Structures are given as structure tokens and as C-alpha cells.
Amino acid sequence: MADLYERLRRIREQQRRGAGSSGGSAVTRSASAGVPRVVPPGPEWQERSPGVYYRSLSEALPRRYAHQISPGGVWGGLSPVFRAGETCLPLFLDVETSGLSGGSGSVAFLVGVGRFEGGDPGGSAPRLRVEQLFLADLGAEGGYVGELHRLLGESPCYVTYNGASFDIPVLRTRAIMTRRVLPEDRHLDLLPVTRRLFSPVIGSCRLSLVEEAVLGLRRHEDIPGSQVPERYQEYLRRGDPRVISSVLAHHVYDILHLAFLALHLNEVLSLSPPPPGEGHAGPVSGPDEAARLRLLWERGSSADRDLVAERIQDLLASPDGRCSSLGQGLADLQILIARSRQDWSALESALWLLYRQRGSRGDAVALAKFLEHRQGRFCQALQVVITAAELRGWDPDLEHRAARLRRKIERFGEQKT
Q1: How far apart are the two ends of the chain, measured CA to CA in Å?
Q2: SS3 of residue 229 by DSSP
Q3: pLDDT of 142-164, one tens digit each?
Q4: How far apart are CA 152 and CA 172, in angstroms?
Q5: CB neighbours (10 Å) of residue 375?
Q6: What is the structure's pLDDT at 368?
Q7: How far apart are CA 295 and CA 291, in angstroms?
Q8: In the prediction, which pLDDT does 25 show?
Q9: Which end of the chain, C or N, has fewer beta carbons within 10 A?
Q10: Where are the compositionally biased (Low complexity) regions (predicted)?
């Protein structure tokens, strides 16, 4: 990826030099109106229609991901967690708009897609082809949207980061405004899965933070996304490609790192060890293991669910698995699994672990209910409730449970046989 970073740096330098070669400014004005004429965003961009420009870049992907990508660019072996099928031809999509909101007044002036280009049997690394479409004239949006839809194709499988809330609605709105229908088939938004896996570990899951903490990737000479609309407005006013060059590079990073993240998440969501090969450039934070196993239990295949159950039992049998927040998360999941499988021994073990480690009123009530209803051990259940009340204080749930258990002890004795 260092080659692409270097290429982006050279492009920005060329834009600066090119802008200065015509009297020190890239602004060209109409003699009659004094209004900036449409200027390409850079020398490497091709004009597809008046005011609409296109460029394409390609970058090699790490060989460790080669097993996920076929020679035809098909992404295979997708985790069932994604709910996007076992294979797809992904279109990594990112949109930059003229405003920070996604309303009808916000124009998607820069849209980019990334496509896998598979390696060959001889062992060449797979690549990502990044294609960008830029609107240099707001009056040309009709032709721009037409070019965009040709770029997207008929049945795209979009892969985005927060695209369900932003990118797709923006493009859908712009299509309607130009009397078109956005082509839509499948959509995989990586943000919800990323949050489930990594927010317990790294906190905020903004893409820039995920890139650094999870993927070990850093951007060079990047700008904050909040500055993008202002830069575009300045470009339209001045017709100077230098003010938009950093936005274009920022956009390439978004698409490239989106593809890296998708491949990495698919690897994380596999219960099989990844193949040996090239790793990431920097330190990588692993996912929250309890969250990962819960996702696989909730959305995985039947084989995944069996492996999850085995994995949890192994972890809870180890000292590390029983301690700290990991043990509590695993125990919560063990309760869910044990109830679905009616494994009462595993359920009791998990309930006791939570009662002893976390010790909330809810944990006490859950354990007391199990001892009362499943095993008829009324005195032991009452002791659990009283101990929790001594530590946490009485509340209506504990008072109700204690009164109920005392009545049963009077009626049946210490334990119902």
C-alpha cells in the first residue's frame, strides 16, 4: 500500500505545479461573465461528459487475503454473520457530499467504488481497482448520475461503512431528483458488525480510528471529513484543483481501507485460523471475544454454533476465561446457549459464575429462580437472595423472591423432592 500512498503524494504535487504553470492560479474565468469555467480536478482525470470526470487507481492487497478472492474478483467464503450470501462481487462504495447532512440539498459530488481484481494461479497478489467519479459542475448532475449508474452496474452488492444511514440514502435521493432509480440488490454495511466486535475494546468506531487501532493503517496528509464540503465549495468558486486534491486522496483512503476492513472482519469471524502470510503494517487490536462468539451464535451456521459452544466451554474451563469482563460476557452467552439446548448443568455453572463475579441483583434473582424452579432447592435459593440483599440492598424483586421462597419452605420444607 506504500506504493499507492506515494502515488497520491506525487499526484498532489503535480496538481500544485500544474496549477501554478498558468499565471500562478488554476482559475479560468469567462470573459463575459467573470465566472470560473469548469476545470478538471487533476491532470490524470478523464472527462466522461461535460463537467463529469473519472479516474481509476489500482493497489495490491496483502497475500494473506488471497484465499478470499477468486481470479475473477469474486469475494468468497463470506461469514454468515454478514448475511450477504456465501459469495458476491463486492462494490466498495463511498460518497462525499457538498453538505454534512444527507438531505435533498446535499449533492454527492464524489462517488467512488472499489472492485477486487483476483490474482492468478501463479501466485500474484489480488488487487483492488478504485474508480472515482467527480462532479465539477453542479449543472451537470443529470449526466453525472447517468455515468454513476453505468459505473455501478445493474445488480451491485454494495459494501459500505455506515452506508445504510448515509451513502445509500444520498444516492437514492439524487437518483430521484434526476428521475432515475438507484440500482440496488444487496448491501453489506460494516459499521454494525465492527461496533459489535470492537467497541468494547477501542470505544469509538469512527473509520479513521478503526483503521489505526484494528488494521494498523495510517493515512498521510489527510484532512478531516468535516472539511470536505467547504473544500468543494471553494473549488467551485475558484476553479482551483489544488483545493480539492486532499479531498480526492481522502476518498481513495476511505475506499481502500474499507476493502481492507471487510477482508479483515471476514477473517475475524472465521473460527478457523487464518492462513500464514503477510500481516498488517502495525499493531492490531483483536475483537472482544465474547462479542465475536455471540455474533457467530446469533447469525452463524449450525456448524459455527457447535464450534461456538465448544469454544465457550473451553474458555470457561481456563483461568483466563473465568475472570474479568471476558468471563462475564462468556457466561452470559453460555446461559443463552444452555437454555436453547436445555443443558441444565452448563446453565447452573454460568449462573453461579455471574453471581459470584458480577453479583448484581439480577444475577441473584436469575440464580434463585433456577434453584427454585429447576432443582427445587428453596433454602439455597433463599440464601442467595438474602446475601445479595445484604450486599446490594433490598429491592422489590428480591423482596418478592424472598417472600415466595419462604412460603415454599413452609409448605414443602427445605427442598422439594
Answers
A1: 69
A2: helix
A3: 999 999 999 999 889 999 999 99
A4: 13
A5: 14
A6: 95
A7: 6
A8: 32
A9: C
A10: 24-35
Q: Give the model's pLDDT for residue 62.
A: 86
Q: Are 137 and 38 in contact (CB under 8 A)?
A: yes
Q: Which residues contact 334 (CB under 8 A, 6 or more apart)?
A: 312, 313, 316, 346, 347, 349, 350
d(CA 404, CA 5): 68
pLDDT digits (tens, 9 = 90+) for 30-84: 434 444 568 899 999 999 999 999 999 998 888 888 889 998 899 999 999 999 8
Dihedral angle sign, alpha carbons of residues 71, 73, 74, 75: positive
Residues 6 or more apart whose Cβ sits within 8 Å of residue 403: none
Q: If you count them, how many residues does the chain have?
A: 417
Which of 139, 93, 127 is closest to 113 using CA atoms?
93
In angstroms, rounded to a whole number, what is the distance separating the alpha carbons of residues 92 and 251? 12
Say how many C-beta atoms besides its own lie within 10 A of residue 31's C-beta: 5
* Residue 168 near residue 184 (C-beta atoms within 8 A): yes
Task: State phi, psi for 218 to the nearest 5 degrees.
Answer: -125, 140
**2-268 is classed in which CATH architecture?**
2-Layer Sandwich (3.30)
pTM of the full structure: 0.84
Half-sphere exposure of 353 (CA within 13 A, CB side): 26
